[in-house]
Write a structure and sequence with these properties.
Layout: E1 4-11, E2 24-31, E3 36-40, H1 47-54, E4 62-67, E5 70-71, H2 77-81, E6 84-87, H3 99-104, H4 119-131, H5 147-159, E7 165-169, H6 177-189, E8 193-198, H7 201-207, E9 210-215, E10 218-223, H8 225-228, H9 231-238, E11 242-246, E12 253-257
Parallel strand pairs: 3-8, 3-9, 6-7, 7-8
Antiparallel strand pairs: 1-2, 1-4, 4-5, 9-10, 11-12
Helix pairs in contact: 4-5
């Protein structure tokens, strides 16, 4: 079974005329088989940069990122794309493509350079669009969709890759509450290893098996939502007072932010 291991990772953005300033330092993170792991932290803490190192976009300056026993930076981009799917916050240029054509792009890592779309590819596309509730929109222009619909199309594109590991950067961005819940419930049902960043801590608490908290490029806490989401840690990392109690209908914690008059 697939496992993601990030060990002693460090990374600094390259800035012209300046010495690199580390943005990520000494990061150790693990996602086990079938685990839904959340990455939380304030804006600018390094969440997106860490994900970019983990899905082979930013080469780390130090440390190792491995999938199972394989260092992903010693493998080809194609090898990684056959095993890791990514859903980002920003939307791609669609060049006039339909919804089905955007989703079908997810099959590319499994095909030869000159292979056309097969009946199996079409079946994967239909199935993925049905899973995200967009089966009736398959011929619609991607550019005409709302932000939330585009997000669901990109999830469908990731699913047709048949990945072992799914990474998502703010997966509920652009979505209304209904689709936030439906998306995360669907993700949990997939049985995939998942690493996702979150701004909404209540959603992270409700759906993640474990959380990692990043602040200033370093991991400052990890564990179950119950262990991590404490008033003291939220005050330390986010600079805001919070009431943390148990959700009235479930066992996970519920966060209420405290505003001062």
């Amino acid at each position: 079974m697939t496992q993601l291991h990030i060990e002693a990772l460090a990374w600094a953005p390259q800035e012209r005329g300046r010495a690199p300033r580390p943005l990520l330092q000494g990061v150790d993170l693990h996602v086990g088989p079938g685990e839904f792991v959340g990455l939380i932290g304030p804006n600018g803490s390094g969440k997106t940069s860490l994900l970019r190192c983990a899905y082979r976009a930013n080469p780390p300056d130090q440390g190792r990122v491995s999938l199972g026993a394989d260092d992903i930076w010693l493998r080809s981009a194609r090898w990684c794309a056959q095993r890791i799917a990514v859903v980002l916050q920003e939307f791609p240029d669609e060049f006039g493509l339909s919804v089905a054509e955007v989703v079908a792009m997810g099959r590319a890592p499994h095909k030869g350079l000159f292979d056309g779309d097969s009946a199996e590819d079409a079946r994967h596309v239909v199935q993925a669009l049905a899973q995200v509730g967009l089966a009736e929109q398959r011929e619609r222009a991607f550019a005409s969709l709302s932000g939330g619909e585009k997000q669901r199309v990109l999830l469908a594109r990731a699913l047709v890759q048949a990945p072992q590991l799914l990474m998502l950067d703010e997966p509920t961005n652009h979505l209304d509450p209904r689709y936030q819940l439906e998306l995360l419930q669907h993700l949990r049902s997939l049985g995939l290893s998942i690493l996702a960043s979150f701004h909404d801590l209540n959603l992270a608490a409700a759906f993640c098996d474990r959380l990692y908290v990043i602040d200033g490029g370093r991991l400052v806490a990890s564990g179950t939502p119950q262990a991590v989401l404490t008033p003291g840690l939220l005050r330390q990392v986010f600079g805001v007072e919070a009431l943390v109690d148990r959700h009235p209908l479930h066992t996970y914690p519920r966060i209420t932010w405290i505003t001062r008059p």
